[in-house]
Design a protein that fits this description.
The chain is mostly helical. It folds into two domains: about 30-160, no CATH class; about 185-265, no CATH class. The chain has helices at about 1-50, 65-80, 85-115, 135-160, 165-205, 220-230, 235-240, 250-260, 260-265, and strands at about 125, 130. Strands 1-2 form a two-stranded antiparallel sheet. Helix 2 runs antiparallel to helix 3, helix 2 (about 65-80) crosses helix 4 (about 135-160) and helix 3 (about 85-115) crosses helix 4 (about 135-160). The longest helix has about 50 residues, at about 1-50. The radius of gyration is 23 Å and the shape is globular. The N and C termini lie far apart (about 80 Å).
């Protein structure tokens, strides 16, 4: 009889642990999502102001930049792991974490797509163009604000939601992230293929002939597919710059007005 009770207790314990783990995963996934949305607001606002036109920043088409979400999760994990460490060690590691996340993200994206999506080579004290001192200082300030204020506030708001609301939001956001990641990945793959085809065309002495469309004032379909990657990551203009002479002037002028002429003149 006692063995049956012990087995039942162990069974209930295992089930409760699984449920608790599942609930924690949902909470942290929602935190990741909100942090990614906050990052999109911060970066899109910063770039829109500095570039003097609206910029939808980030790899995804929607209002999320996952690198900020991963950075927020890394900070949360390290803050808990270093909770008993000396305060100097605690903050020294945390303020360097976003820069490390940015470096690793740059490396992994370049390996995945064969494209450098951002480049700090012209910034002082940069490391292989992937990170630089100026933005590392910005990330350090954001780290302090996140650990002290943003994370406690967001977690309390997320946990205040009902269980059904959390599960529903997590499910909807999961589907969104999968679909947007697939679509955005295809956009970068198409961009890389177009740039390679254009270079090959130039080497043969040819020029780009857009597909004919009824609306002659509209950019050709092949060019319209480049706009999102170029607006999000102007560094990609460098992939096209050597071959721009093969593109009709009116198309190049339109791209300059959309992306920003200064990116084409570098």
């Amino acid at each position: 009889m006692n063995r049956c009770v012990d087995r039942a207790d162990r069974g209930h314990y295992i089930v409760s642990m699984i449920n608790a783990t599942y609930e924690n995963l949902i909470v942290w996934f929602l935190y990741f999502s909100v942090a990614a949305a906050f990052g999109w607001v911060i970066e899109s606002t910063f770039r829109s102001v500095t570039e003097h036109h609206w910029v939808n920043s980030g790899f995804l088409s929607g209002p999320f930049i996952p690198i900020y979400g991963f950075g927020a999760l890394a900070l949360a994990a390290l803050a808990r792991a270093l909770a008993t460490a000396h305060w100097a060690l605690f903050w020294a590691i945390l303020v360097m974490t976003p820069t490390a996340v940015e470096y690793v993200s740059s490396y992994m994206l370049e390996k995945a797509f064969g494209l450098r999506l951002w480049d700090y080579s012209k910034e002082p004290l940069n490391l292989r163009g992937r990170v630089c001192l100026v933005f590392s200082i910005y990330w350090a300030i954001l780290t302090v604000l996140t650990v002290r204020f943003v994370e406690p506030f967001l977690l309390s708001r997320i946990k205040a939601l009902g269980e059904f609301a959390r599960v529903y939001l997590a499910g909807a956001l999961s589907m969104y992230f999968v679909m947007d990641t697939i679509g955005s990945s295809k956009a970068l793959i198409n961009f890389k293929a177009f740039a390679a085809d254009l270079r090959a065309l130039v080497e043969r002495g040819g020029s780009f002939l857009p597909t004919l469309e009824l609306d002659t004032k509209r950019l050709p379909r092949e060019i319209r597919r480049l706009i999102k990657p170029l607006k999000s990551f102007p560094t990609l203009v460098g992939e096209l710059r050597p071959s721009l002479d093969a593109i009709p002037g009116w198309i190049t002028s339109r791209l300059e007005s959309i992306i920003g002429g200064r990116h084409f003149r570098k």
